[in-house]
């Protein structure tokens, strides 16, 4: 008989492994050029294109196209409960959920910033990002866009 503790440990290990898959795939995108509307590392990625590509490659999960649409998928979580692989959203264009990145842990996230930039890691505690933080979502493997 499997105990509840063993089941909880197995579930935690599965979550950790899945988050690691996302982080590994995201880190492989470092240095890819930003491209508005971009959804391929070969031609460039915008913020939501990066998130969609990483989730598709790591988990086979299809996410919506825009950061606003992605902000409606998964479970809403607080900043103090962030885990690697969670999505972090920002208000960068004077409207909510205009930017998205993937939380890596230790207050860092990876994202595709803007024209002229490349996929990079930044601190959520930098003043620019701190004052524009607009929420976070946790998406589990297999949780896809509602069609």
TrEMBL record:
PROSITE patterns per the UniProt record, alphabetical: NLPC_P60
Keyword Membrane: no
One Gene Ontology MF term: cysteine-type peptidase activity
Swiss-Prot/TrEMBL GO biological process terms: proteolysis
Keywords assigned: Hydrolase, Protease, Thiol protease
Entry-linked InterPro entries: NLP_P60_dom (IPR000064), Papain-like_cys_pep_sf (IPR038765), Peptidase_C40 (IPR051202)
Keyword Protease: yes
Pfam families, per the entry: NLPC_P60 (PF00877)
Top-level taxon in the UniProt lineage: Bacteria
Every NlpC/P60 domain range: 16-140
Family: Belongs to the peptidase C40 family.
Name listed for the protein in its UniProt record: Cell wall invasion-associated hydrolase
Organism: Herbaspirillum frisingense GSF30
Source organism phylogeny: Bacteria, Pseudomonadati, Pseudomonadota, Betaproteobacteria, Burkholderiales
């Amino acid at each position: 008989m499997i105990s509840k503790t063993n089941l909880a440990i197995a579930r935690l290990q599965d979550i950790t492994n899945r988050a690691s898959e996302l982080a590994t795939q995201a880190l492989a995108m470092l240095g890819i050029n930003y491209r508005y509307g971009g959804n391929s590392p070969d031609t460039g990625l915008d913020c939501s294109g990066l998130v969609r590509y990483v989730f598709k490659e790591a988990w086979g999960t299809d996410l919506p196209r825009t950061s606003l649409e992605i902000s409606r998928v998964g479970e809403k979580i607080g900043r103090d409960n962030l885990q690697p692989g969670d999505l972090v959203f920002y208000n960068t264009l004077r409207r909510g959920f205009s930017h998205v990145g993937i939380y890596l842990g230790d207050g860092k996230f990876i994202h595709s910033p803007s024209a002229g930039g490349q996929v990079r890691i930044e601190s959520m505690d930098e003043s620019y990002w701190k004052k524009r933080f607009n929420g976070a979502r946790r998406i589990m493997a297999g949780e896809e866009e509602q069609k």
